[in-house]
């Protein structure tokens, strides 16, 4: 998960050896000719990656990715970048690269994220653009090109919830009955997720990784963890975003518009819209359980406390979906026990 937070080290820090390496690296370019003195923070990432902007002699802006080995490897980024670019969606162009040191020079897709631009007036157009790009990407999916989003990976992600959210954040250990109930929910979600048609999955297709462009909107970032997996995953990332919330009526409308576009494009979505919406909700719940664990881990392990502010919204999504389906009642009960809340009912389906 990426973050717009600024790096702690400023470009004039004499302690940052990698920053000096970057300055020396970009000073060697014949094209574009960059000014090392113009290097400044662009954004940081939830991983070890960070990004800088630099200007050329014409005043154009470029992005330098710093992905320090051995913690990071730029090869997956380069692979997915080539793959996604071939589909026609908007991704950065790789202009220069030093794979061994983990440096990339990229075209700049601007500084306006969807999160910054979204409002009641702009949301519909921006989301339809994002949906059109998603359909374009998915229609060109091929197996055996990206890693599979298989059962082991989906389950490993959800296990972050008991390990980091329950264990570290709440300071609680599940008893045998609670663990069995959670395992049952995991099995239910996995059965749904794995039965869905498989396509290219960005994995973090949300408002912080989509850039507003004048043409070819949106610009797509942070795709290096892409996989081949469930067709509703990126739609759930987009419309059940951990950083911004929309009324259920709007989300349903956008889901239906995606479903209509996907069917016209020949994508194998469930032909029944109610069943497709259930797929969307169950996929979203898998993601939200994972994200609760990730955000807790970012705080407790990595000292990044900004994500704590986003936990309540992710938990709200988790509870709302769990309330709507009778088979998810064990998760509602577990959440009530963990948070000492009175049991609630309100099943819709």
UniProtKB/TrEMBL annotation:
Annotated GO molecular function terms are:
ATP binding
Which residues are in the Aminoglycoside phosphotransferase domain? 39-266
Assigned keywords, A-Z: ATP-binding, Nucleotide-binding
* Entry keyword Nucleotide-binding: yes
Q: Which residues form a coiled coil?
A: none
Residue ranges of the TM segments: none
Listed SUPFAM superfamilies: Protein kinase-like (PK-like)
Answer whether the UniProt record assigns the keyword ATP-binding to this protein. yes
A Pfam family the protein falls into: APH
InterPro entries, A to Z = Aminoglycoside_PTrfase, Kinase-like_dom_sf
Q: What name does this protein carry?
A: Aminoglycoside phosphotransferase
Q: What is the originating organism of this protein?
A: Oxalicibacterium flavum
